[in-house]
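Hi all, a correction to my earlier message: I attached the wrong file for N-acylneuraminate cytidylyltransferase. Here's the right sequence:
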Amino acid sequence: MSVVAVIPARGGSKGVPLKNLARVGGRPLVVRAVDACRRAQLVDTVVVSTDHDGIARAARDAGALVLDRPAELGGDIVSSEAVLLHALDRLAEHGADPRILVFVQCTSPFIDPADLDDAVRQVRDDLADSVFSAVETYEFLWRATPEGLRGVNHDHTRRPRRQDREPHHRETGAFYVMRADGFREHRHRFFGRIAVQPVDPSHAVEVDSEEELDLARAVARAVDREEPLDVDAVVTDFDGVHTDDRVYVDQDGRETVAVTRGDGMGVRLLLEAGVRVCVLSTETNPVVRARAQKLGVPVTQGLRDKRAALRQWMDDEGLDPARVAYVGNDVNDLGCLAEVGWPIAVPDSHPEVLAAARLVLTRPGGSGAVREVCERVLAARKG
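and the right structure:
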């Protein structure tokens, strides 16, 4: 173990309760941090230090080694350095003595693994002892004094052009990379030769409040890279996914809906590939049962608690929820979306559903949304 990444993730966050399990782009913040570290080529081991069972479970499922954090390190005033030192001590008890320590914070959901690798290289190649993530800034900063506001990083009596100024660096808080022995000696993340790892400004969103969490969820749709939809099962809502959410009612009160034949072909191809498919619906309508029978998939309708029904179906089928996709469009799908590794929304979904989704489809419900999911799953299986 030459390079170890440590992710502190306590359960007692105040600004956003259980913040580290809050989902951005359909994934909990702690899982996003673990994924970024595991995708970095130069990180050998990923460790999550936590005092919360749910965070531990999510981190372990994502592939991290979990260390139980003692109660005395779970308070608001405990420093990150204390948690990192505890993690290094625990690793040492098991014979691990990393050369480089990477400190990663869950509150930064858009960490680029390539940036982590570049920062590790600076320390590995002896170009720096400590490296931190930052964005270049030409902002003019001010501070209050008894005489009024005064410039911090500039002479306020002189206003140079941007091209005539050297950039400053704003610390993002996303990650810090340092020599492990130097960190033990100084007991602080900054020591020796300090260098910066520039990151894309769009990746510099930090989540410490509900408003920042909403912002991160909006940004995720723009900056998250498309991933292969590699799952073992696809579960869908019916209205608004297989249909356009409209219902046609004749003079006798009979309801009809329109579906897309291409969706049916997609489901057939999924079933032939061994991917399980299920339909869950809050409504009780013969048309839902008829369509499911036509598709050859199980359906459960008239559900008051779709989330419980989904859990039961996954348990009966022996499925790992992390490898299940759920496609929904409205607020009664939010519980199901939170249960699976791949929460998916159609493009005209309710805003809360769009915020919860890991993937937002390009085709609307009733116009090829189901087929798009099927094609993505089949493409992932082909590699």
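Sorry for the mix-up. The longest strand covers residues 168-179.
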